[in-house]
């Protein structure tokens, strides 16, 4: 990727992919880190699954929280909250090139071992 393409891609990430809404998920700083992270992951996943049910698209990203001090100020998030992750939310633009990417990940049977499910 050329410099200008990378720059534009990064800029898009900091704007939550131009989504009309972004969800910023935080946790209270009094909670011992990283213990609540699993719970936050489960909540984040369920937000995304619920969005799909309503025909919305999501993108979980940490680029949108790269500057937490800015989010604290602009979104009025108290300093007592640790910003953990963001979710871009909106109707998918199926013409956007990244939405046409097909993942050729490893087949599940090659990376798991199922015992007792024969």
Describe this structure in words.
With 118 residues, the protein is an alpha+beta fold. It has a single domain, classed as 3-Layer(aba) Sandwich (NADH Oxidase), CATH 3.40.109.10. Helices cover 35% and strands 19% of the residues.
Keywords:
NADH Oxidase; 118 residues; 19% strand; globular; three-stranded antiparallel β-sheet; alpha+beta
pLDDT averaged residue by residue: 90
- Separate helix tally: 4
- Backbone shape: globular
What is the count of structural domains? 1
Helix/strand-derived category reads alpha+beta
What is the name of the CATH topology?
Answer: NADH Oxidase
Q: Profile the largest sheet.
A: 3 strands, antiparallel
Q: Walk across the major sheet and give the strand order.
A: 1-3-2
Brief sketch in words of this structure:
The protein has 118 residues and is of the alpha+beta class. The chain is built from 4 helices and 3 strands.
Note the topology.
Layout: H1 3-14, E1 21-28, H2 37-53, E2 57-61, H3 68-75, E3 81-90, H4 108-111
Antiparallel strand pairs: 1-3, 2-3
